[in-house]
Amino acid sequence: MVGTASVRRVTALKGWLDELLVVILVIVALLLGWAVKGWVEGQTGSFTSEDGSISLRYPASWLGQVDKNALLAVSDVRQQGVFKPTFSLSTREMNPDFPLTQNDLLVTLSLAKAEELTAYRVLSVDPATVDGQTASTMTYAYVAEPAGAPQNAIPAVVQAVDCVVTHEGRAYVFTFATLAERFERDEAIFRSILGSVDFD
Amino acid sequence: MSERACCVCQVPLTGEARTIGKRCYCTEHYAKVTRGRDHFWQSGWVLVAALIVFILLVVGVDTFAQPTLEGGLLLAVGIAVALVPALIWLLFFYLQDRLEPEPKRYVIGVFILAALLAAAVGIPVVNDLFKVSDWLYESALIQLVGGILVVGFSQEFLKYAAVRYTLFGSQEFDERIDGVIYGTAAGLGYATMLNIQYVLSNAGVDLSVGVIRIVVTALAQASFSGIVGYFLAQDKFEGKPVWWMPAGVTLAAVLNGLFVFLRDLASVRGLQFNPWNGLILATLVALGILGILFWLMRRANRASLAQA
C-alpha cells in the first residue's frame, strides 16, 4: 500500500530535484556568460612600430586616439566617467655622447609634466622589468578637465604611471592614465600590455 | 490500493479521485484549477492598450506643451512614469477581480519582492559583477549570446524565485492561472525597479524617449515571467517531468535575450535612434505571448474537463 506520506515524499523529492536543476542551469548559464566576458575582454589588438623595433598587444576594444607625440595612443572609450583609461607609447632617440639613465629620463619627464599638468604630484618611483629589460616606473596624479565634459562637471582626479625602458640607444615611455578611483582595478590592464611588449 | 491526497490542500482522497496529469485533486480544488478567469486575460489586453494610450498621452504633452523639467522635478516625473505600467495593471486587475478576488497582499507582495530582488541582486550582478556595458556590445553575436546567458537567465531566475519560493507551495496558488498572475506581478515588479534605476542613472529622462523605454521594459518583463508562471503552474498542477521547469526558465531567458537584441537592432540605425520600432516589437511580443498563454491555458482546462 502506498501511503499519503510516501506520495508526499515522492512529490517533495521531485520538487526538490526541479529546483536543483533550475539552480544548476542558471549557475551554468552564468559561468558560460563569465567565460564569454573573459573571452571578449581577452581579445587584443596588436601594434608594431614602423621600424619593427617594438611590438605589443592592447585590448581590442580600445580605440586609437590622436596624439602626435606618441607612436601609439589608445583609449577605452566605452568606459563610463569623464576620463577614459588611456595608454600611449612614445619613444625618443638617446644622444650616444650623453646617455641618460632611466632615472634621469624620469626626472626629465617629471619636470615636463609638472609644467603642463594641474596639481601634479609624484606618488612613487619603482623598478620594473619589460621584456627582460630593466625599467623604471613613476606613478603620479593630477587634475584633468577632459574635452567633452559638461561645463559644470567636477574636474577628474587622474592617476597615471610612466614606465621608462632604454633599449638599443632609444628610450621607450609607456604611459597609462585612468581615474584615480579606478586605478587599482585598471592597472592590471597596463601590466598586461607591458607583459606583451616584445623588443626585436 | 493506494491512498491519495489532494495536491493542493493535502486532504486524503477516498474512492475515485479526480486527476490531472500525475496530480490528484479534491472536488473543490479540481474546480479551481480548471477555472478560466477571463478577467485576468482582459486585464492583460487592457494593460497593453492602456500603455499605448499612456505613451501617446505623454509624448503628446511633451511635443505640444514642451514642459521645462529640470533637476529634482525631472527625476520625480521620471520615477512617477516608471511606476505607471505597474499601477495600470494592478488597477485594471483589481477592478475586474472583485468577483473572484485574488489575495491582494500576495500579488503586491510578489511584485515588491521581485523589485527588491532586482535592486539587491539582479541589477548589481548584471551591471557591477558582469559589467555588461564593457563587453556585451562587442559584436551582434556576443550581444545575443551574452544577453541570453547573463541578462536573460539572471532576470528570469529571480522572477521565478520570487514566485517559486513564496507562494508556489501555498494553498493560495490553487489555480492554473495563478502562475501567470503571480509571474506577471513579479515581471512588473522587476521591470519597475529596472525603470527606476534607468531614470536614476540618467538623472531623469527625456519624457518621450523615456516613457517608450519604460513601457517596452514593462511589457517585455511581464510577458517573459508570464511564461515562467505558466510553466510553474503546469508543473504544480499536472506533475510535469523534472526537465519541465529548467525548460521553462530557459525558454524565458532565450526570449528575453533575443528580445533585447532585436529591440536594439530595430531601434538603432547607424547613429539614428528610433524608440518607436522597439515599442512596436515589444507590443507584438507581449500580445503574442499573452495570446499563446491564453490559448494554452484554455486548451489545458478544456482537456482536463473533457477527461473528467
Strand order of the largest sheet of chain B: 1-2
Which structural class matches the secondary elements of chain B?
mainly alpha
Q: What is the makeup of the main sheet of chain B?
A: 2 strands, antiparallel
The helical percent of chain B reads over 70%
Strand content of chain A: 35-45%
Strand share of the residues of chain B? under 5%
As a whole number of angstroms, the C-alpha radius of gyration of chain A is 25 Å
Major sheet summary line of chain A? 7 strands, antiparallel
Fraction of helical residues of chain A: 25-40%
Quaternary organisation: heterodimer
Distance between the termini of chain A: 83 Å
Q: What is the strand arrangement across the widest sheet of chain A? A: 3-4-5-9-8-7-6
- According to DSSP, the number of beta strands of chain A is 10
Number of strands of chain B: 6
Q: What count of helical segments of chain B does DSSP give? A: 10
Query: SSE order of chain B, as H and E?
Result: EEEEHHHHHHHHHEEH
* Structural class category of chain A: alpha+beta
Quick gist of this model?
With 200 residues, chain A is an alpha+beta fold. Chain A contains 3 helices and 10 strands.
Structure explained in plain terms:
The complex is a heterodimer of chains A (200) and B (308). Chain A is elongated. Chain A has three helices and ten strands, in the order αβββββαββββαβ. Chain A has helices at 4-42, 102-116, 183-195, and strands spanning 44-48, 54-59, 63-64, 72-75, 86-93, 118-130, 133-144, 156-167, 170-179, 198-199. With 200 residues, chain A is of the alpha+beta class. In chain A, strand 6 (118-130) and strand 7 form a beta hairpin. Chain B is mainly alpha-helical. In chain B, the strands form three sheets. In chain B, strands 1-2 form a two-stranded antiparallel sheet. Chain B has a two-stranded antiparallel ribbon with strand order 3-4. In chain B, strand 1 and strand 2 form a beta hairpin. In chain B, helix 8 packs antiparallel against helix 9 (244-267). In chain B, 47% of the residues are buried. The mean pLDDT of chain B is 84. Classes of the chains: A alpha+beta (200), B mainly alpha (308). The interface between A and B is medium-sized, with 29 and 39 residues.
